[in-house]
Write a structure and sequence with these properties.
Layout (H helix, E strand, L loop, with lengths): L2 E19 L5 E20 L5 E5 L11 H12 L1 H7 L2 E6 L10 H16 L6 H9 L5 H6 L2 E5 L4 E4 L7 E7 L6 H12 L10 H9 L1 H8 L3 H6 L2 E2 L2 H7 L1 H11 L4 E6 L6 E5 L2 H14 L5 E7 L6 E5 L1
Parallel strand pairs: 1-8, 3-4
Antiparallel strand pairs: 1-2, 1-12, 2-4, 2-5, 5-6, 7-10, 7-11, 9-10
Helix pairs in contact: 1-3, 3-4, 10-11
This protein binds adenosine-5'-triphosphate.
Function: Catalyzes the phosphorylation of the position 2 hydroxy group of 4-diphosphocytidyl-2C-methyl-D-erythritol.
Enzyme class: transferase
GO molecular function, one term: ATP binding
């Protein structure tokens, strides 16, 4: 029975701009996505039957067919029935460290790890672009989770152009454990409130997305200028989420006043807020300051850092 242990990193959005809506119900986006060290551990193991089984240590994560890791395995089984018959089904065990429904792509990175794990278990030899393409059929963030690093993502998030990697920028993450923000709600509300500002502008969307608005932060990334990157963080969804969730606004404002914080922003559709900090020591100090300001045990705080890769194979048996 073969088995692979994989590391599945979370992501943050350094930049998220909503360019327009699309006929398929998604939005045309311009994002800069960044892998971070905070990661789930995923084990994929062959089964002697053709079943797919999911185990997870986190009570909020479903282990049935709605789990994105399950759906990734089901996709592989449907695409490669001969490999399923030859090598058997898979048991997936998720050790969740990434907060759930947090805007950190926890489910997407699990799905990406399962695609890569099954490719190895079934000796398929798929290329990264092939795995990214498969992932895109399950969720917009999955291609990025396969690729990892620092990337400009356009389309609905699935078209990737790599940027030079940003390594070792320290980050503090803050999230209220019991607070969840629905991604669908955030985009729908944005569209209702601000859609009239972009709906008619359908010209040359992808080019505009990649070139115009994100230009300043892209330049800062090319120059590896952490201070400038931190100043140019942007997320359109803050306009709706901060207005509706005072706790997220509070974290955002508190981070901004901490000594050592270079810049702060909500990740994805929230509710996680992150701060870029110059050094590990400063990040630990910011974490302590945040804890002292909000002693509520519901608040989760993490010190992590940017990394240059996506899914990694840690070991195999
Ligand atoms: P994104 O940043 O891609 O929008 P997210 O970090 O906001 O994602 P997830 O942690 O992926 O959100 O969870 C969203 C929902 O998906 C949760 O409510 C959870 O029940 C469900 N879910 C399904 N599979 C998983 C999984 N493997 N890990 C976490 N959540 C999962």
């Amino acid at each position: 029975m073969r088995s692979y242990n994989l590391i599945a990193p979370a992501k943050i959005n350094l930049y998220l701009e909503i360019i327009s809506d699309r006929p398929d119900g998604y939005h045309e986006l311009a994002m800069i996505l960044q892998s971070i060290e905070l990661a789930d551990k995923i084990n994929v193991q062959s089964l002697s039957t053709d079943r797919i089984r999911v185990n997870c240590n986190h009570p909020q994560v479903p282990t049935d067919k709605s789990n994105l890791a399950y759906r990734a395995a089901a996709l592989m089984a449907a695409k490669f029935p001969e490999a399923l018959a030859q090598y058997g089904g898979v048991e997936i065990t998720i050790n969740k460290q990434i907060p759930v429904a947090a805007g950190l792509a926890g489910g997407s990175t699990n799905a990406a790890a399962v695609l890569i794990g099954i490719d190895l278990l079934w000796k398929l030899g798929l290329t990264k672009p092939e795995l990214e393409e498969l992932g895109a059929t399950l969720g917009s963030d999955i291609p990025f989770c396969v690729a990892g690093g620092t990337v400009i993502a356009t389309g609905r998030g699935e078209k990737l152009s790599p940027l030079p990697s940003l390594d070792h920028i320290y980050i503090v993450l803050a999230k209220y454990r019991s607070l969840e923000v629905s991604t669908a709600w955030a985009y729908k509300t944005y569209r209702q409130e601000f859609g009239n500002t972009y709906l008619k502008d359908t010209e040359n969307l992808a080019a505009r997305a990649a070139a115009v608005h994100s230009e300043v932060i892209v330049k800062a990334i090319l120059n590896k200028d952490t201070r400038e990157i931190a100043q140019k963080l942007h997320n359109d969804l803050e306009r709706v989420v901060l207005a509706a969730y005072p706790q997220v606004l509070q974290l955002r404002e508190l981070f901004a006043t901490q000594p050592g914080v270079l810049g702060t922003m909500m990740s994805g559709s929230g509710p996680t807020v992150f701060a870029l900090v110059e050094s590990e020591a400063q990040a630990q100090a910011v974490k302590l300051q945040m804890r002292a300001a909000i002693p509520d045990e519901d608040l989760e705080l993490f010190v992590t850092r940017t990394i240059t890769h996506g899914i990694q194979v840690a070991s195999s048996i």
